[in-house]
TrEMBL record, chains A, B:
Cited CDD domains: HTH_LacI, PBP1_LacI_sugar_binding-like
The entry's keywords: DNA-binding, Repressor, Transcription, Transcription regulation
GO MF, one example: DNA binding
Listed name of the protein: LacI family DNA-binding transcriptional regulator
Top-level taxonomic group: Bacteria
Keyword Transcription part of the UniProt annotation: yes
Domain HTH lacI-type: 11-65
Gene3D superfamilies registered for this protein in UniProt: 3.40.50.2300, lambda repressor-like DNA-binding domains (1.10.260.40)
InterPro entries, alphabetized: HTH_LacI (IPR000843), LacI/GalR-like_sensor (IPR046335), Lambda_DNA-bd_dom_sf (IPR010982), Peripla_BP_I (IPR028082)
Length: 350, 350
DNA sequence: TTGAAAGCGCTAACAC
DNA sequence: GTGTTAGCGCTTTCAA
């Protein structure tokens, strides 16, 4: 803490006005760039602003305005690279338009999600970017609808009848993963995911299964879906392998699943890609430096953030029309964790 | 976007007042929990609030208050687990006290850091938690001082003459890493870091070197410090090894350095711990599932966040006294990436 | 081209 | 106990 510094009130618009010898209204006009101010007066105002170091108080300014220049962002968590990058992008885009981004974490709780939303409604934010915990049918989206809030849904959503949505094209990416794995000769593949994020998980699963079975009708696709938490998934995966199942490849539909799969491989002493291949949805920086590097689906964070903000501001500015549902293409990075089934000792033979 | 929903004005305090047959002031008192309201009237107010779904507008409420109930948080980035967890914690602690946390990323830029701070000053936040890009002597801290802002400095700081500081006890943790490595027999160790974060890096480096040399005066400690960016570090590290240097262990002073070290090991075909041992400052979830698991110093995020907020609110509530400088103890997790020098083929022998 | 006046939604003094 | 009054700092008619 600075000790008793210049704690004197900050200059207000009236201070500027009196110093420039005009009214507060004129100062306001100068700040807004209105042309109908006599150049001479405008200059006096500018000088006064400079001398006093005046800056408008955004809160006071918003009080009088119809829409406040604040965008709310609600993410399921802040701890992952994906959402970290997302918030960074959204913040940057909001700033570019002169808005402040207020980000909050729902910590994977739908109850908290609605609470935060209510608080943002109290703040009378101009719009909200909501990355729902579950999907577009949760209580948060319902709250937004019921209260006539302006918003965009991203990430774990497909499409909605009230809000624009933007998400990664999980189905297409998963189809590509299927092509890669089947192409390498895999015929017994395990898919792991979280059932909670229903629509997204289904898209990823269907996209994968459909393509895999089309290319190799004899292929066997097993699925291990935990309801809502990661620890149960760990247990289910352990059981699956304990039963003696020996797929040659695993496709994890989300980041934590990839970590769980890796840790299960560790426990069993299996290495990628010799004993088993692995591809994960969601990339992370470490995946390219570990040995082996882990193959991953890279989500187009910038595109998602960009189009979400575009859609949001279009609505804020009064844009009409039916809600849009965008799917942004992903990139699939096949790395060393994927090989051909025959290349090493199969776990079944150990 | 919800299409033409109940866009009618939200209930204001006056709506509640007239419905309850009292004045706005009385409603305000009820909301504030002031005891001097006739129970009967209080009930009528409560009923009206309930019926109208009234909630106070935090902005309007703050307008009239001396201190606004907003805490600003400025982090160098949002993409890492460390700062993600930090923001999550800070948000939670601010909420507990009825404050809103507004977080912003300086994106590792001191210029941006000052801009954000100026904007937070415009918002007249009650206090700021600043995790400076460089250290406590940057322009941001100077701005806070000059403008009499209330704040706490965390992470890349040691102590300050104007603000309370809270950070991990890097020196002690580094000393422990030294004990572990020397204890395992390492006598030639490379330390990599980023020079920009001067004080913190010095503390980590000194803590390590002092202890290592005390325990093994014959040990050789090499240092590769990049000025401010990660890519130069990569190049410097490459040069270092290209010169034929063959330390038996590497201690990275920050997370990105650990990634760079791993990727350089990859490039050279070295494995941990057989060819070289590795310990990194900063833990991450993936470090315990890769093979080998990577040894790391775990920073006490919760403690740092907790004490930072404690110190901040103490100052907000008028607490006096000289600034405090807290150091929170870290945990050192020795994992498989660390072994004894003799255990495998030394890279020099390859 | 300008400024007076009204008011955004709320709280805090101070009468009553 | 309660209501009146007076703002917080700004924007926005609207009349001059």
């Amino acid at each position: 803490m600075a000790h008793r510094q210049d704690q004197q009130r900050r200059a207000s618009i009236h201070d500027v006005a009196s110093r420039a010898g005009v009214s507060a209204a004129t100062v306001s006009k100068v700040m807004a760039g209105v042309a109908t101010v006599k150049p001479e007066n405008a200059q006096r105002v500018l000088d006064a602003i400079e001398q006093l170091g005046y800056r408008v108080d955004p809160l006071a300014s918003d009080m009088r305005r119809a829409k406040r220049r604040i965008i709310g962002a609600i993410m399921p968590e802040f701890e992952s690279e994906f959402f970290g990058q997302m918030v960074t992008q959204l913040e940057s885009l909001a700033e570019q338009r002169g808005y402040t981004l207020v980000a909050a974490s729902s910590r994977e709780s739908e109850a908290r999600e609605t609470e935060i939303l209510a608080r943002m409604h109290d703040w009378r934010v101009a719009g909200v970017v909501l990355a729902p915990v579950r999907n577009e049918h949760g209580p948060a989206a319902a709250f937004m609808k019921a209260n006539g809030m302006t918003g965009v849904l991203i990430d774990r959503v497909l499409s909605d009848d009230a809000f624009d949505t933007v998400s990664a094209d999980s189905a297409a990416a998963s189809a590509e993963v299927a092509r890669e794995l089947v192409g390498k000769g895999h015929r017994h593949i395990l898919v792991v995911g979280l059932g909670e994020q229903a629509a997204t998980v289904r898209a990823r699963l269907d996209g994968f299964r459909t393509t895999a079975l089309r290319l190799a009708p004899d292929a066997r696709i097993d699925v291990v879906l935990a309801e809502s938490d990661v620890e149960p998934l760990r247990a289910q995966l352990r059981d699956y392998f304990a039963k003696g199942e020996r797929p040659t490849a695993v496709y994890s539909l989300f980041l934590k699943g990839t970590l769980v799969a890796l840790s299960e491989f560790r426990r069993r002493g299996w290495h990628c890609p010799d004993n088993i291949s692995l591809v994960g949805f969601d990339d992370a920086e470490w995946m390219q430096v570990t040995w082996p590097a882990i193959a991953a689906v890279v989500q187009p964070v910038r595109q998602i953030a960009g189009h979400a903000m575009e859609a949001l501001f279009a609505r804020i500015e009064g844009g009409e029309g039916p809600p849009t549902a965008r799917l942004e293409p992903c990139q699939v990075l096949m790395r060393e964790s994927v090989g051909s089934p025959g290349n090493g000792p199969h776990p079944a033979n150990q």
